[in-house]
TrEMBL record:
<dbReference type="Pfam" id="PF00106">
    <property type="entry name" value="adh_short"/>
</dbReference>
<comment type="similarity">
    <text>Belongs to the short-chain dehydrogenases/reductases (SDR) family.</text>
</comment>
<keyword id="KW-0560">Oxidoreductase</keyword>
<protein>
    <recommendedName>
        <fullName>Short-chain dehydrogenase TIC 32, chloroplastic-like</fullName>
    </recommendedName>
</protein>
<dbReference type="InterPro" id="IPR036291">
    <property type="entry name" value="NAD(P)-bd_dom_sf"/>
</dbReference>
<dbReference type="GO" id="GO:0016491">
    <property type="term" value="F:oxidoreductase activity"/>
</dbReference>
<dbReference type="InterPro" id="IPR002347">
    <property type="entry name" value="SDR_fam"/>
</dbReference>
Length: 250
């Protein structure tokens, strides 16, 4: 089945096709990643890195939750959601919602690394807010976030060149193989020790600290509200989160 996380239409079509198969969904790993060196806007009017790394996952998770809760109830096996983030989430500082609006309207404020850090911070905050919401409805589904480590993957294909090669050469002793990088994700998705553990951030198969912004409940709630508005947008035009709701009163 085809799925393009940068396209909200593609996400909706994927979920519809999956639901038509009447298959159980017990584990969801949100792992799609993009580091866009050049500024780009998705078909939904959202900056491309944020759209791919976070917003598509937000909608995918939202649409699959009922199926996951149904599966957990029928099988007695708790569902697990794993959001793949990065320690780079700590590199972002400032006003998230305002920056999303700025880089979704114009490339003048765009910085590739900051945009990527923002998308990874959004993964962390999504985990925090979703865990609270699942707890409130007593869902037998947990959600946690992971930092897989530094690994050279196709994510860097748009950043190839002498500088990228030099950075990876200097960091080679810190780099993980793909199986090593996948270890924490698999651990959080399957290990019995993490039964009923939710809303946490893991690195190297251990619970770890997020950035100060990443642990802020108010920021998590604010991002959720903005995300609900963004995924409900149907017009294929550049979207301005700031004009879509009363930002100053959130």
């Amino acid at each position: 089945m085809a799925l393009d996380l940068s396209s909200l239409t593609s996400v909706r079509n994927f979920v519809s096709e999956l639901e038509s198969l009447n298959l159980p969904v017990n584990i969801l790993i949100n792992n799609a990643g993009k580091f866009a060196h050049e500024h780009a806007i998705s078909e939904d009017g959202i900056e491309m890195t944020f759209a791919t790394n976070y917003l598509g996952h937000f909608l995918l998770t939202k649409l699959l939750l009922n199926t996951m809760m149904k599966t957990a109830k029928q099988t007695g096996v708790p569902g697990r959601i794993v959001n793949v983030s990065s320690s780079i989430h700590g590199w972002f500082s400032g006003d998230m919602i305002r920056y999303i609006g700025q880089i979704s309207r114009s490339k003048s404020q765009y910085d590739a690394t900051r945009a990527y850090a923002l998308s990874k911070l959004a993964n962390v905050l999504h985990t925090k807010e979703l865990a609270q919401r699942l707890k409130q409805v007593d869902a037998n589904v947990t959600v946690n976030c992971v930092h897989p480590g530094i690994v050279r993957t196709r994510l860097t294909r748009e950043r190839e060149g002498l500088i990228t090669d030099l950075v990876f050469f200097l960091a080679s002793k810190l780099l993980k193989t793909i199986p090593q990088a996948a270890a924490t994700t698999c651990y959080v998705a399957t290990h019995p020790r993490l039964l009923n553990i939710s809303g946490k951030y893991f690195a190297d198969c251990n619970e770890a600290w997020t950035s100060k912004l990443g642990s802020n409940s108010n920021e998590a709630a604010k991002l959720w509200a903005a995300s609900e508005i963004m995924v409900s947008k149907h017009a294929k035009a550049v979207f301005d989160p700031l004009s879509a709701f009363d930002y100053h009163h959130m």
